[in-house]
Amino acid sequence: MKHLNSLSLLLRQMKVSTLLKSGAVAAVAMIGVGAPVPALAQTDVPALAPLGDPPIPLDNPLSEAKVELGKKLFWDPRLGGDASTACVTCHEPDQGWAFGDSLSRGYPGTVHWRNSQSIVNSAYLGQLFWAGSAASLEKQAPSAAKGAVAGNGENDVMETRLAFIPEYRAAFNEVFGTEWPRIGDAWAAIAAFERTMIVNDTPVDKYLAGDESALSEEQIAGMELFNGKAGCIQCHNGAQATDEKYYNLGVPPAERWEDDGLAQVTFRYELYAKGVTQEMYRVLKDDPGLYFRTKEKADMGKFRTPPLRYTAYTAPYMHNGSFWDFEEVVQFYNAGGGENDFTDGTMAASKSDLIKPLGLDDDEVSNLVAFLEAFSGDELEIEAPVLPPYAPLDSQ
Ligand code: HEC
Ligand code: HEC
Q: What value does the CA radius of gyration of the chain take, rounded to a whole number of Å?
């Protein structure tokens, strides 16, 4: 277990550890430990690499006070509709900073329509959400707090609530220099806090930085399969183990959409809200993923390759939580993926050509599973903040 006692310590660590930033360093490190060149390695994809520090946007620099404020806001349900559903409600610390069910819980009266993703290391991603619909943490936070089946909050109401909390008034004033809290600054503070939720000292990081003892023999064998026979590196590559591109693997449709009326309500609502054709609205029984953004048939059923880091804590897996452990995931790939509404040509035939039966035997499957476990390291523990109370404003 890793305890973060002091945010200032974390901020200090982030400043000094610029060492392992570039892929070039990683490549040298791999040669240094004598990693064999895998048989089927793709020459055109970046190798796995140790994770350095996350990028910090120039217009939202980190400071200790901002991170501290963002942390409170992450926990504060008053940034939402009926003050019941904070960010942390669906990104629970002991569930991998995600939510441990196939579909996430939703705003009261709803079930979310996708699996909740981890906040850990989201700071490195250029495109957030399963279908990449937010381009930065600053843009992602309001869509979560305001989304009908997530926070369902109203800007004016949330901003007014902040104004009636003296401790927040003082903190926003200190951090952003405004007399009154502005809702946009709340999202900036949350984003700053998320940029401190980093785990980059996993066994994989240590091994790639030259510590040969960081991985077991089984895990090293798994890594060779990952880079070679199993072909995982084709999409899960670079320091985050994702190319941030979109694929349909044939993940089967969400089971709960078959038998859970409430879950169907949200799915129907999302189809309507995101704008699909009338025919699709009538017949669709599966999540069209990237199609919602592009409206291109070829993008139906495609999702962003997720990072593999911290996933030991974030089961179940995939955009709809279809698989409950790594073994199920690896067996799915071993069988050449699966079938869904967008694989047989009726709606679309967008399944990736890269997904083919792998012919892995039982030992190879368990080596690959062991390697996946090495991407996670210790659990990130952060002490919950005490939330400040409301107080009436002076009448003059
Ligand atoms: C009701 C549950 C719920 C609430 C509340 C919620 N989230 Fe999420 N979060 C999710 C789900 C589900 C996803 C994936 C949704 C998708 O891809 O369409 C997600 C995705 C994310 C991601 C993307 C991670 C990645 O890998 O791309 C981030 C970051 C995030 N949430 C942060 C937040 C923040 C910050 C808040 C509070 C302002 C918040 N969430 C509130 C359920 C929730
Ligand atoms: C063609 C690109 C591609 C290849 C090859 C690939 N993956 Fe994936 N991986 C994805 C995508 C895309 C998803 C999400 C799919 C979805 O939700 O529908 C995913 C999801 C996962 C997840 C679930 C992560 C989570 O947070 O839910 C794991 C674990 C995983 N892959 C491991 C592997 C392993 C192991 C291999 C090699 C056997 C592999 N992947 C090969 C693209 C790929």
A: 22
**CATH number of the domain enclosing 164:** 1.10.760.10
Residues 183, 104 share a domain: yes
106 and 144, same domain (yes or no): yes
Q: Is the peptide bond between 316 and the residue preceding it cis, with omega within 30 degrees of 0?
A: yes
- Regarding the beta carbon of 207 and ligand 1, being less than 6 Å apart is answered no
Q: Are 333 and 354 in contact (CB under 8 A)?
A: no
Are residue 194 and residue 221 in the same domain, yes or no? Answer: no
| Tens-level pLDDT at each residue, the chain (396 residues) | 454 444 444 454 454 343 333 333 333 334 334 344 444 545 689 999 999 999 999 999 999 999 999 999 999 999 999 999 999 999 999 999 999 999 999 999 999 999 999 999 999 999 999 999 999 999 999 999 999 999 999 999 999 999 999 999 999 999 999 999 999 999 999 999 999 999 999 999 999 999 999 999 999 999 999 999 999 999 999 999 999 999 999 999 999 999 999 999 999 999 999 999 999 999 999 999 999 999 999 999 999 999 999 999 999 999 999 999 999 999 999 999 999 999 999 899 999 999 999 999 999 999 999 999 999 999 999 999 999 999 998 875
Among the bound ligands, the one closest to the CA of 79: 1
Residues 155 and 287 in one domain: no
Q: Are residues 99 and 146 in the same domain?
A: yes
* CA pair distance 171, 102, nearest whole angstrom: 37
Q: Does residue 30 form part of some domain?
A: no
Residue 14 in any domain: the answer is no
- Number of domains present in the structure of the chain: 2
Q: What is the pTM of this model?
A: 0.92
Beta strands 2-3 and 380-381 are parallel
Q: Is residue 35 part of a domain?
A: no
Same domain, 177 and 215: no
- Give the pair of three-digit tokens for residue 93: 């610390």
State the CB neighbour count (10 A cutoff) for residue 246.
Answer: 23
Q: For a pocket test of ligand 2, which of 102, 305, 323, 343 has the largest count of ligand atoms closer than 8 A to its C-beta?
A: 305
| Atom 41 of ligand 2, nearest CA residue | 232
